[in-house]
Amino acid sequence: MSLENGFFGPNEVLIDYLTKLNDPGRYPFTRGIFPEMFRKKNPTLRQFAGHGLARDTNERFKKIIALGGTGLSTAFDLPTLYGDDSDAPLSRHEVGWDGVAIDRLEDMDELFSGIPIDKLTVSMTINAPAAIIRAMYNAVAKKRGIPLSSLRGTIQNDIFKEHIAQNEVLYPLKHGIRLAVDVMAARSNFHEVSVSGYHIREAGSSAVQEVAYTLADGIAYVEELLKRGLKIEEFAPRLSFFFDAHNNFFEEIAKFRAARRLWAEIMHKRFRVPILENYDLKDTKLQSLWCRMHAQTAGCTLTRNQPLTNLMRINNQALAALLGGVQSIHTNSYDEVLCVPTEKGVKMAIRTQQILLEETNITNWVDPLAGAYQIEYQTEKIYEEAKKEISVIESFGGMAQAIEELYPQKKIHENAIADRETFEQWKNDPNKKYFFEQDDTADEDLAEISEEVEKRRGYESEQKDRLSKFKKQRYQTGALKALDKVRRAAEKKDNLMPVLQEAVESSATLGEICGALRDVWGSAKESAGVSSSFSHKKALEFTKGYRFPRPMRVLLAKGGHDGHTVGFYILRDIFQAMGAEVIHFGFRTTPEAIAKAAVEEGVDFIGLSALIGYVPGFFEDLKNSLKSYGGSDIEIIGGGIMLPAHEKYIKETLGIKNIYVPGSSDFDEIVQNMKKRTGQ
Amino acid sequence: MKNIEMFERSALAYMIGAFQKYPNLAMNIEPSSAWVVGVTGVTGAGKSMLISRLIPSFRKKDMRVVALLIDPSSQKRGWAILGDRRNLRSDELDCDKGLFIRSLATRGEWSALTDSLSKIIAYSKLFSDIVIVETAGAGQTDVEIREHVDTLVQVIEPLGDSLNLEKAGQSEEVNIFVVNDREDFKSGKKFFTSAKLILGEQYLDDGWRKKVYLANAETGFGVAEVVEGLFEHRDFLETKKV
Known about the structure:
heterodimer, A: alpha/beta, TIM Barrel, Rossmann fold, 3 domains, eight-stranded parallel beta sheet, five-stranded parallel beta sheet, 13 strands, 10% strand, globular, B: alpha/beta, seven-stranded parallel beta sheet
């Protein structure tokens, strides 16, 4: 009857089949972009992998292929994602940690050594420096005599969502857009962009915001490419999209369906792509209407205390993606909330997909939930609301302008803090106690994980040694000249790709090339913050009106390259609500810079979030730096993804008591500890 | 290069906190010849960006720099987000031991801070060659900051009619104007030309003829000229003393 009763009927849901659904493979593609969907081809089993040096990831790639992976997906380490070499000061404790370390062409070559890159599709998750990595990939193919047209795969290269949500940015937005679009403008068989909602959702957006901002990003790319004089069917078939597969089961299925319909309508109505009666799957006009999508299960939903229970969450999410008709799926590893996935974790993730694909018979049916009142109601709802939100973005003049005004960033922050509040209440419900309960049997698994993590600590020095040898032995003048050429090209308007490829072939490193571009374009401006009156209100609810008895001073910083800011901003709002003077020191900071600032600012607390990397290393360095600046009395509050053993080390050996870990602690704990600390 | 040593750094950090907490705290502070420059202008005018460009220029001359960044606190709840320091960050400045930066919240009325500000500045002068004070706001604040600084700079956005500059009382006491020539303000040059014609003709009581510059702190365009102008004013003050 209605939403309150938990079911819908024909009175609420009018299904106009031809305009809203239509058969699979028919405009507006709500039921799928292909007529036969998985009956003809299973979704690609694409597992994201990368750690250590190129040779370690290469080994992992070969294992994934042996386990039944049908495509590769590369995770780069944080320094690479930020266009820094492994020897940069900010790269400390991060080299090879959560992805593979790539500094130069030879690393890239080694990464794909013995892998038939002309036969397999390869996905690369990298954004701000995507152009340089893409140039390296082409250079590897050239070296092997492989024609560039046989390279297939996807490079994420989505700079908008970085500015909106993930903050892996290098240059001011307009230069970032130019670099990304230079990559997209290539005539290749590669998906040169994967317009991503995943990171937007993981940063705390709603499903509607995820669809709306992703498609608005897509619109902005299409417009940029049209400005370059390209015809729509020359590039639109190669646009691909990437969404999150979250917990809210039916809403997620509806989300994939709604996004497909909305994108097809945008391409048809706004960009005038015709709907041809007589169609053939190879027709680029038809393909231009498709919202091809990759889905990944939601990392932010995983628990840390009972890692094995994550297997069920991951399965549910993958099932939603499958029922939603996506083209490829990455299932998370159950242990990734503790550290970068171990081999066992990856294996279980692959098995999860294989079980769904091979044992359930689901793939025999195309869009099996179509026509269900409830699914159609939710699909329609997401479609309508996302459409409305896109028109808000349009009213700013498009996504680039909306980002400059911090609009999507603020909306996501508001949703994130509200969600967090709901969640902290949710898990206090006696029925939900299971979620945080500590699982003793996990110890055995932990021992294995710890062993693998220990290995990672050795990557940094090895990669740095290799790099410094390389820098000494290469033909210096050639590298310097190529970098100069990059600078000159950056000042002009021509496509940068040829010059970038020349630079990597002249043995300039990733960090040097990104630096050369920075010389001309400057660095990205960090946004001033995303708080709003709504988030203040929510923060006051969190703190239940508690206020510090005197003006406390707190310095908040993120250590290393990592740009995940959800917790950072929520914490900022919470401290603010307690009446603190918050020094927003910002992201991408070194422990020494934090220590110096904290001493000068005379703060009571430092809040340091070091999410990824060898986390105890950041805190140890900060302690030492504080000592050398005479600030040992300043208390540290920390957060990061770490193993229980590392948590223990930070708490007991380093004496930092307030450590918060995603998936097992909450903000209420911080408030309670602050009260205690100030004697209340 | 001259540094602010570890003990000086912690003493300064501690005393600034003490002066702010106890405005009546009496202390005999030795006079110092360090130069005090105030930078004012409305929120978002580009003050911190300009300061981030000025600091390296002074550091290159081996001058030790103390930067005091003042931001208002919330009147109602007391909190403050002090974000200006972030704008001064760079690889070059982050760990520069010849530089000391402190963010100050007004903790209520601006005048609450002014009581301690003269002591904070006087104490900062002991460890530095130049003290830069950044204040937000307009009107009253500028008049109050005037008595604490040797040279007063105002950053202005090229918005609205430049004739309005004349009416605004805020510009009366300013030595140097910097028109922020950001890319998103299309009228930068036009505005600058008329601002120069209006303000550049004015003299202060001590005989200083106001200077007007066009600069873009993001790209660094025009900053060298601003620095030159600052030193000209310092020299002007020196000759006055003699």
